[in-house]
Amino acid sequence: MTFPPLREELRGVEPYGAPQLDVPVCLNTNENPYGPSAACADDIAASVRAAATGLNRYPDREHVALREALAAYLAADTPHGVDPAQVWAANGSNEVMLQLLQAFGGPGRTAVSFAPTYSMYPEYARDTHTRWVAGRRADDFGLDLDVARALVEAERPHVVLLPSPNNPTGTALEPAAVADLCRIVGEQGLVVVDEAYGEFRRAGVPSALELLPEHRNLVVTRTMSKAFAAAGLRLGYLAADPAIVDAVRVVRLPYHLSAVTQAVALAALRHAPELLGNVAALRRERDDLVTWLREQGFEVADSDANFVLFGRFADRHAVWEALLARGVLVRETGPDGWLRVSVGTPEEMTAFRDALTVATKEA
Ligand SMILES: *Cc1c(COP(=O)(O)O)cnc(C)c1O
After folding, report:
1. Which one of 2, 30, 52, 320 has the fewest beta carbons within 10 angstroms of its own beta carbon?
2. How far is 195 from 304, CA to CA, in rounded Å?
3. What domains can be seen in the chain, in order of their start residue?
4. Residue 16 CA to ligand 1 centre (angstroms)
């Protein structure tokens, strides 16, 4: 018997996470390069100060004020509006999705996604003893509905996890494809559309929020970690049928969302126009980056997110290392031969372009 007496299937498993290296140009975790302004930071500090005097009490378990503010924020992305009863928040959308797997996955149940995709999904399945099945995306990283239909019919999944835009490829899904999938999965399963990068989608690409009134088995998750420039806050949320919110309440830990988190998230939402103000600039920078990479002869996946997947490299690790040697950290992820770079400030993108030009000559 080896110590500690860990579950068999967890032995030797490395914890998830990109390397957190102290490097001048960090383009590896899709963070927003623009932090909150001094005015926003002051409002956050004042909100924490006010919350501090009440810390002897447990927080609002139902985080009602926050759910109202999130519902109002989401309403901009759907003509049908969003009711606070449809909204639920937790410590990052990773926790939201884990709660969904806790409630709707489990022993004897199956979760499905389509690779290449977010590498945390199989971990939620593992941690909730849910059977995990990964289908394949098409060559352009879109979803082939015939492949999806065949997989769903064969596996009868209880949860389908589908990021749009997808990480690490940047691919957004057509709402018609999401609607088809909701019908194919049927009411024995949930279709979870992870819109962590939703605010970065290109003009004319709608949010899956629009489909909520028509599909009771649809869940849309969002986060304040990316477009909202608040990765350090740890606040994610979902919009879905209130019956799904009721189910998540059963598995959440008591008072899972601290009074400080709720106060900071509310303050950040009051500054939404400012925090989201740089999204348009980042989208333009993203489109310029795609164009530039293609001009250099790279293969580049279309991107609706704040990152770009590009390749192909015979030895991507050598390129990753050569970039790092020049102070630029990107992510070695996705299909072999590809690298993912997050969109940073214009200065950071110049540093990336310069480093890549030299690095590909060397590697
Ligand atoms: C970054 C990311 C998230 C957000 O995670 P948080 O826990 O909200 O920080 C969710 N899904 C995908 C695919 C992501 O890349």
Report:
1. 2
2. 11
3. 18-34+278-362 (3.90.1150.10), 38-274 (3.40.640.10)
4. 13
Whole-model pTM: value is 0.97
Reported as type and span, the H/E element at residue 146 is: helix 145-155
Whether residue 1 is predicted with pLDDT greater than 90 in this model: the reply is: no
**Token digits of residue 35:** 């932090």
| Cα–Cα distance, 66 to 68 (Å, whole number) | 5
Q: Which two tokens stand for residue 202?
A: 């290109």
Q: What residues contact residue 18 under an 8 Å CB cut-off, 6+ apart?
A: 28, 29, 331
CB 194 less than 6 A from any atom of ligand 1: yes
Residue nearest atom 14 in ligand 1 by C-alpha distance: 196
Helices (H), 165-315: 175-185, 242-251, 259-270, 272-275, 279-295
H or E segment to which residue 160 belongs: strand 159-163
Judge contact between 307 and 340, C-beta under 8 A: yes
The token pair that represents 144 in the structure block: 């082939």
DSSP for 268-300 reads HHHTHHHHTTTHHHHHHHHHHHHHHHHHTT-EE
Compute, in angstroms, the gap from residue 56 CA to the centroid of ligand 1: 31
Site of tokens 């939620």? 124
**What pLDDT does residue 360 have?**
86
**What is the rounded CA–CA span in Å between residue 195 and residue 172?**
9
Q: Is the CB of 342 under 6 A from ligand 1?
A: no
> For the segment 43-67, what is each residue's pLDDT rounded down to a tens digit?
999 999 999 999 999 999 999 999 9
Would you call 101 helix, strand, or coil by DSSP? helix
315 φ/ψ angles, rounded to the nearest 5 degrees: -135, 85
Compute the residue count for the chain: 363
98-147 pLDDT, tens digit per residue, is 999 999 999 999 999 999 999 999 999 999 999 999 999 999 999 999 99
Residue 171 carries which side chain, given as an amino acid letter? T
Question: Does residue 208 contact residue 195 with C-beta atoms inside 8 Å?
Answer: yes
